[in-house]
Amino acid sequence: MSPDLTPSPDLFDAETRVLSAARATFDDPHAGLAEHREALGGLLAGYERLLRETRRLIGRSDREELEMNRLNQRLHELAGELEYRATHDSLTGVLNRAAVIEHARTLLGTSGMALVVLDIDHFKRINDSFGHPVGDQVIRGVVACLQPLVPPAARIGRVGGEEFTVLLPGRSIDVAETLAEQMRAAIAAHDFHLPDRSAVTASFGVGALAKGSSFDVAYRCADEALYAAKRGGRNRVMCADHVYG
Ligand SMILES: Nc1nc2c(ncn2[C@@H]2O[C@H](COP(=O)(O)OP(=O)(O)OP(=O)(O)O)[C@@H](O)[C@H]2O)c(=O)[nH]1
């Protein structure tokens, strides 16, 4: 509970009494030097006490203000952390599924969007052979391969266990396809330090949607291309056969 900063009620009562007594002395034509000295002494003592009390209150309110600023700052930090946790995947730090959908809807409402969907190949085998923590390391490694390749305006998201998407503003399927091919090659060339020294690969689907399209249609078209890449032998990029919308 914050301390009560209201001055105690008798703070000014005492000064008022001293002031009234002094005024009465100064108004009294018969008052002598001793009475005037006494009134002046009372005024000085009251003045000094007021100064001390004022300094104490100012010091206290300065400390209160500092504490309030510190709490405010912490509140801002916590709100930021909360917002980050609500929108980011805790394993990889990229956007989570809900944030991907929201960002995609924003892009589809403004500029149209190209998207790349990728899924790590035979990921179950990695988990089953080497354990879940190694699988997690592979997931983080895949994101590390994607990050340096993705342009600043694009966002990476994790939409499922070992499935990711990259959202690109604008609807150039060629730009998205080139990026997907670079990402595919980077993952295939990366050393994930698996115990059996095997490589990790991923399959890619690419789609593009005009402004005003729905996210579900956007995702479906890229996802169909991804499964065509899986069926076609994995470790490859397939494009949706036309730009939707
Ligand atoms: N380590 C780890 N594994 C996960 C996570 N989320 C999902 N998985 C696993 O990911 C695996 C996905 O396997 P499948 O969907 O069968 O596909 P796959 O083995 O990658 O095969 P293809 O996609 O056909 O190439 C399952 O074994 C899940 O348990 C996670 O956060 N960490």
UniProtKB/TrEMBL annotation:
Domain of life from the UniProt record: Bacteria
GO CC annotation terms, alphabetical: plasma membrane
Q: Which reaction does it catalyse?
A: 2 GTP = 3',3'-c-di-GMP + 2 diphosphate
Q: InterPro entries, per this entry?
A: Diguanylate_Cyclase, GGDEF_dom, Nucleotide_cyclase, Rev_trsase/Diguanyl_cyclase
GO BP annotations listed? cell adhesion involved in single-species biofilm formation; negative regulation of bacterial-type flagellum-dependent cell motility
- EC number(s) given by UniProt: 2.7.7.65
Q: Name one GO molecular function term.
A: diguanylate cyclase activity
Please name the top-level EC class of this enzyme. transferase
Query: Mind telling me which NCBIfam families this protein's record contains?
Result: GGDEF
Q: Write down the PANTHER family for this protein, in alphabetical order.
A: DIGUANYLATE CYCLASE DGCM-RELATED, REGULATORY COMPONENTS OF SENSORY TRANSDUCTION SYSTEM
Full protein name: diguanylate cyclase
